[in-house]
Design brief:
The chain has about 550 residues and is α/β, with parallel strands linked by helices. Helices cover about 30% and strands about 15% of the residues. It is built from 18 helices and 20 strands. The strands form five sheets. An eight-stranded parallel sheet has the order 11-10-9-3-2-1-13-12. Strands 14-15-16-20-18 form a five-stranded antiparallel sheet. It is globular. The two termini are about 30 Å apart. The protein binds alpha-D-glucopyranose. Alpha-D-glucopyranose (GLC) binds next to loops. It holds the Pfam family Alpha-amylase. InterPro entries: GH, GH13_cat_dom, Glyco_hydro_b, O16G_dom_2, SusG-like_C, Trehalose_TreC.
Length: about 550
């Protein structure tokens, strides 16, 4: 049996969920404490960002030991308790596997540096660097000790890429996944997994910082099949998701089509680049609705036709809050948050909710660079200033784009530090916590809407299984699609603008049933008028 398409995943950034020890950092016990809340929301699986030992240069994506718990977050016993308690609530865990690279503090790298040739072959060492750029700035190669060689780091200089061409490396990494399977974990998220397969000969590539030279290389598919067979593929309803950096539809169909036995589904990020100016992240630009709509349609239809499967999401720990990017939050926070939610929960794929999204959390509105801790943001700020931007201009860009925007503590209530901790948190709490918090939102508009969406998915196979077809492709305001299953049809209309939008509704739909809307009393007229940020799902 394959994974359950009725499932909804909830992502938790452990550092920022709930602190039970009073050190300002969230922990595993904190997550356990909040299980009743998550059960009330109705989610099925919790994806946990890395909580393994790590120097935290990249907040845990620089792992120094794959099979232990960082004392910052608790103990292995805490983890085991989390798994068993979650089970009582019908919730399972999905763990983050960062297998493209490890921290330079990992013993493999340390042994390699000390001259051990067995471990040197765990890394990608070359006599001469290529011209590739690191995703966190600068050249992607750094001197390997005093050997005269260079090691590859596609991310921070402390995140050394692992050499998957070496079968010993693959075996060690498969053991890591199996270690966690033995702890009762069935679901996994694989970090930047379309970058694991590097060619034997690495060549300069002036296009797009060198990305085409190491992204989606054909051998990646082989490695994924091997990984599947050696680990999670042995669990009947395991759910796996690959984070695909700068990927293509063709590759994503391959990664996720069940016949190929690679992964259950893929994250792609194209829809979250529609507010990049000329493809560059560290710029300011209003989002381009036309590109967003076209991307959703192209991917939705191609994945549907090719039998692939997408992970659907607006937010994660690497993205500023979608509400700040796609919605006039000053005037339409509730409408915008619910519309964004419906636009993916009713689409074809598995929805992911990022902590705080279900209560409409916003970017924190930091006022100084000293509030930011993320390595990528700090490097980008420096890069922007070095390239001639004024400090104010650079700050405005960081404020809009920083990953810290989504990493601020979960807002539980209006007490000090938003009920996250009784000590000063590792990253400051967002300015809005007095109004936007779980206690207030439970009886607000957004949380109950998420509950409803999650419940609908359980009861309507057309939502969890139906095909995807683009609708109203020429609309300048409305992103719409039609789902189909066994003679049933569901039309989902999402007004992405702060103005009313007129839609010509086909006659059959005027007699349909309103399955969901974020406004009351919508008449299904042939000349349908959608309210600002209205979402409307009609079943026939
Ligand atoms: C992924 C993670 C991100 C991390 C990077 C390197 O993109 O989501 O947080 O910095 O990989 O591991």
């Amino acid at each position: 049996m394959s994974f359950d398409k009725k499932s909804v995943v909830y992502q938790i950034y452990p550092k920022s969920y709930k602190d039970t020890t009073g050190n300002g950092v969230g922990d595993l016990q904190g997550i356990k404490e909040k299980l009743p809340y998550l059960a009330e929301l109705g989610i099925d699986i919790i994806w946990l960002n890395p909580f393994y030992p790590s120097p935290q240069r990249d907040n845990g994506y620089d792992i120094s030991n794959y099979t232990a718990v960082n004392p910052l977050f608790g103990t292995m016993t805490d983890f085991e308790e989390l798994v068993s308690t979650a089970k009582l609530y019908g919730i399972e865990l999905m763990l983050d596997m960062v297998l493209n690279h490890c921290s330079t503090e990992h013993e493999w790298f340390q042994k390699a540096l000390a001259g051990n040739s067995y471990y040197q072959d765990f890394f990608i060492l070359r006599d001469k660097p290529t011209d590739w750029l690191s995703k966190f700035g600068g050249n992607a190669w750094a001197p390997f000790g005093h050997t005269g060689k260079y090691y590859l780091h596609l991310f921070d200089v402390t995140q050394a890429d692992l050499n998957w061409r070496n079968p010993n490396v693959r075996e060690e990494l498969f053991k890591v996944v199996n270690f966690w399977r033995d702890k009762g974990v069935k679901h996994f998220r694989f970090d930047v997994v379309n970058l694991i397969g590097k060619d034997e000969t690495l060549v300069d590539c002036p296009i797009n910082d060198g990305k085409p030279a190491y992204t989606d290389r054909p051998i990646t598919h082989e490695y994924l099949r091997e990984l599947n067979e050696a680990s999670f593929g042995q669990d009947s309803n395991s759910m796996t998701v690959g984070e695909m950096s700068s990927t293509t539809i063709d590759n994503c169909v391959k990664y996720s089509n069940p016949n190929r036995r690679e992964l259950s589904m893929v994250f792609n990020f194209h829809h979250l680049k529609v507010d990049y100016d000329k493809g560059q992240k560290w710029t300011l630009k209003a989002f381009d609705f036309d590109s967003l709509k076209t991307l959703f349609h192209t991917w939705g239809e191609a994945m549907s036709e090719g039998g692939g499967w997408s992970a659907l999401f607006w937010n994660n720990h690497d993205q500023p809050r979608a509400l700040n990017r796609f919605v006039d939050v000053k005037n339409f926070r509730n409408e915008g948050a619910t519309m964004l939610a419906a636009s993916i929960h009713l689409s074809r794929g598995t929805p992911y909710v990022y902590m705080g999204e279900e209560i409409g959390m916003l970017d924190p509105d930091f006022t100084s660079m000293s509030d930011y801790v993320d390595i990528e943001s700090l490097n980008a700020y420096k890069g922007l200033v070095d390239s001639g931007k004024s400090e104010q201009e650079a700050f405005a860009i960081i404020k809009a784009k920083s990953r810290d925007n989504s990493r601020t503590p979960m807002q539980w209530d209006d007490s000090a530090y938003a009920g996250f901790s009784n000590a000063k948190p590792w990253l400051a709490v967002g300015k809005t916590y007095k109004e936007i918090n779980v206690t207030a939102e439970k009886s607000g508009k957004i949380f109950p809407f998420y509950q409803k969406l999650i419940a609908l998915r359980k009861n309507y196979p057309i939502i969890s299984e139906g095909d995807y077809k683009a609708a109203y492709q020429d609309s300048k305001q409305v992103y719409a699609f039609e789902r189909q299953l066994a003679g049933q049809k569901l039309l989902v209309l999402n007004n992405f603008s702060a103005d009313k939008a007129e839609i010509a509704l086909p006659e059959v739909y005027t007699k349909g049933q309103v399955l969901l809307s974020n406004y009351e009393n919508t008449n299904l007229d042939e000349k349908l008028l959608l309210n600002p940020y209205q979402t409307l799902a009609i079943l026939i």
